[in-house]
Amino acid sequence: MQRTPIKHCRQCGTAVEHRLPDDGDTRIRAVCPACHTVHYENPLNVVGTVPVWGDSGQYVLLCKRNIEPRWGKWTLPAGFMELGETTIEGAARETDEEAGAEIEMGEIFTLMNVARVGQVHIYYRARLLSEQFNPGHETIEARLFTEDQIPWDEIAFRTVKETLEHYFADRRQGRFGFHAFDIA
Ligand SMILES: [Zn+2]
């Protein structure tokens, strides 16, 4: 989702101006005319997992979203990183919050730049330790799918679809890589 522009100074509450700062910066920023604070806005990280089950990882865990956007669509467990946590910690936390799934964290799998909305999405592979899920309030249902069962037309986000496609392609080749690419 596109973020709404800053309207008021975070330091003093004055309405900001959107202009070039005075320090030679070449981008338009939200600048406070009262206390001169420059508000820098930078990309956010979204972190998640590809939790798999079965001898050959033939099942992937998906969550049906109980929140907007894309209510009712299926996603991998993922969400915005919190301050003070690492990417792996964030991915583990989101997997616990959204699916209530016990996992053993694996290798980094996809890194996708979604420059249009100022986000970087990172997914780790993860091995499920049980088939018991205890999804939180953000999830209607958490369940396992084989490649053929996946509701491909009901996937919430392009980053999730691309990550799933890479997962099953790598699985067929018997070798998992690291895939870094841009989402146009
Ligand atoms: Zn201010």
Plain-language structure description:
The protein is of the alpha+beta class and 184 residues long. The protein has two domains: 1-41, Single Sheet (Ubiquitin Ligase Nedd4, Chain: W), CATH 2.20.70.10; 44-182, Nucleoside Triphosphate Pyrophosphohydrolase, CATH 3.90.79.10. The chain has two helices and eleven strands; from the N terminus they run E-E-E-E-E-E-E-H-E-E-E-H-E. The protein has helices at residues 87-99, 158-173; strands spanning 17-19, 29-31, 38-39, 44-53, 59-65, 74-75, 78-80, 103-114, 119-128, 139-145, 179-182. Strand 4 and strand 5 form a beta hairpin. The model has no long low-confidence stretch (mean pLDDT 96). The protein binds zinc ion (ZN).
In short:
With 184 residues, the chain is α+β, with helices and mostly antiparallel strands.
Please identify the top-level CATH class of the largest domain. Answer: Alpha Beta
Total separate domains: 2
Determine the mean pLDDT: 96
Number of H/I helices: 2
Secondary-structure arrangement, i.e. CATH architecture of the largest domain: Alpha-Beta Complex
Question: How far from one another are the termini?
Answer: 14 Å
Q: Provide the CATH superfamily of the largest domain.
A: Nucleoside Triphosphate Pyrophosphohydrolase
Strand tally, please? 11
Helix- and strand-based class?
alpha+beta
Q: Could you state the oligomeric state of the chains shown? A: single chain
Ligands present: zinc ion
CATH fold-type name of the largest domain: Nucleoside Triphosphate Pyrophosphohydrolase
Q: What does the main sheet amount to?
A: 8 strands, mixed
Q: Enumerate the spans where pLDDT stays under 50 for 5 or more consecutive residues.
A: none
User: DSSP strand (E) fraction?
Assistant: 25-35%
Query: Radius of gyration over alpha carbons?
Result: 19 Å
Helical proportion?
A: 10-25%
* SSE pattern: EEEEEEEHEEEHE
The outline comes out as elongated
